[in-house]
Design goal:
By secondary structure, the protein is mainly alpha-helical. It has a domain of 171 residues: MetI-like (MetI-like fold), CATH 1.10.3720.10. The protein is 78% helix and 1% strand. The chain is built from 13 helices and 2 strands. The protein has a two-stranded antiparallel ribbon with strand order 1-2. β1 and β2 form a beta hairpin. α5 packs across α6. The longest helix has 42 residues. The chain is globular.
Amino acid sequence: MMKTFREKLSGRVFFALAVSSIAALALITLFILVKGLPVIRSVGLFKFIFGMRWAPGRGEFGIFPMIVGSVSVTLGAALAGVPVGICCAIFLAEFAPAPLRNIFRPAIQLLAGIPSVVYGFWGLLFVVPLIRDHLGGPGLSILAGSVILGIMILPTVISISEVSLLALPRQYKEGALALGMTHWQAIKSVLLPASKSGIVAAVILGLGRAIGETMAVIMVLGNAVALPHSILDPVRTLTTNIGIEMGYAAGEHQQALFATGIVLFVIIMLLNSAAQFITREKKHK
C-alpha cells in the first residue's frame, strides 16, 4: 500500500515538473509574441525581414543584413567545427586507447563548460590580431566569429557523433572486417553511413548552438549593420543586435528587438525540430 502511494506520488511530481517546463516555454513564447508582433504588423513582415536598413531612430527596422550575418557566421562555424568534431568522434570511438579516451572525454566536456565570454576574450586577443596581421581587414570579421563558434560547437558535435557510433551493433563492424575490409574501409563504408542520422542530428544541434550565441560573437564580429562582401568583413547577427541595443531601447525600438527574437526563435525551433525528426527516423529504422 505504502509502495503504491509512493509510486503514484513520484509519478505526479514528475508530471508536475514536466508540465512546469512546458508552461515556462509557453509563457516565454507568448511574451515574445505579444511584445514583438505589433511592430511586425506596423512595418510589415516582408519589409521587416528583407529590409536593408536598421535605423530605429528614423523608424526603419530591416533585419536582412543581420540575418545574412547570422547565416554566414553559422555556416562558417559549421565548416570550421563539423569536420574536426566528426574526426574527433571517429578517433574516440574507434582508434583511441582507453587511457587516452579517459583524458579526451573530460577535456571535451570542459570545453562545453567554459563561459562564452572567455571564448570571446580569447578570440579578441589572439584570433582577431592574427587575422588582421596576416589576412588583412579589421580582424573583427565573419572569419573570427566562425573560428570561435567552430570551437564552441565541438563538444556537441563530438559527444553526439561518438554516441551514435558507439550505439551501432558490433556485428556491423565485425561483418565488414570479415568481408576483408580494412578498419578504415569499415568505418567509411559501413559505420559512418549507419550512424548518419545521429551525426546529422549532432550537426544541426551544433548549428542551433552557434546561431543562438551572443556574448562571444559580440566581441569578435565588429557589429556592422551591413551586407558583408567577404569573410573578412564585420557583421552583426540577430543575437548580437538584441544584446547590444536592448539595454537602452524603448517603445517601437524595443518591440523591433522582440520581433528579432521571434525570427531567431523560429529559426532555432526549426533546427531543433529537424534534429528531433532525424533522431526519431533513426530509431524507427
